[in-house]
Amino acid sequence: MFTGIIEAQAEVVAIRDEQANRHFTLRCPFTQELKIDQSVAHNGVCLTVVAIEDSTYTVTAIAETLSRTNLGQLKPGDKVNLERCLLANSRYDGHIVQGHVDQVGICEEVTDQQGSWLFRFSYQPQAAGNVTVEKGSICVNGISLTVVESGADFFSVAIIPYTYEFTNLHTVKPGDQVNLEFDIIGKYVARLLQK
């Protein structure tokens, strides 16, 4: 389980395909603290550490993960938002994030608000109940954010300077894909209402 509070960014240093799987080798400030089998959220996608060598580590994404996320678009040099699993004795600063991306969204607009930024994202409504509500939670590239405006197939979020600078949101521009994990409680409620 995660909270959507980004700890650091990793740099993709190598990518290798093996059958339908894709292995990503990354470098981050806390590589030496990682261990094999540890779960780490990469742009909000929970992946398992499968190898550690010197200052880099490797994770593997299967075809299902690549089809639902923006990880397949990564290339060497790209920056990825990272969060390690929640510790049982930690503060709960974000919201409940599973690291299970529901779908990708498209950045439609980025507006400079003179000290903050307003991002508008669109997404394909899904039968699984992927919905947003104003002042509710949404996870974008692994970042816990509050919804400003909510529609049937879009939402907007306001980004403070700290989040803009210390996550990969500052690289997102109109037309780019982002990973979306909708609020788990909202998904359960939507599913119950469909019955």
Automatic annotation (TrEMBL):
One of its GO terms (molecular function) is riboflavin synthase activity. The keyword Transferase applies. It comes from Rufibacter immobilis. NCBIfam families: PRK09289.1, ribE. GO terms for biological process: riboflavin biosynthetic process. Keywords: Repeat, Riboflavin biosynthesis, Transferase. This is Riboflavin synthase. Catalyzes the dismutation of two molecules of 6,7-dimethyl-8-ribityllumazine, resulting in the formation of riboflavin and 5-amino-6-(D-ribitylamino)uracil. Residues 1-95, 96-193 form the Lumazine-binding domain. Its EC number is 2.5.1.9. Lumazine-binding repeats lie at residues 1-95, 96-193. It catalyses: 2 6,7-dimethyl-8-(1-D-ribityl)lumazine + H(+) = 5-amino-6-(D-ribitylamino)uracil + riboflavin. Pathway: Cofactor biosynthesis; riboflavin biosynthesis; riboflavin from 2-hydroxy-3-oxobutyl phosphate and 5-amino-6-(D-ribitylamino)uracil: step 2/2. It holds the Pfam family Lum_binding.
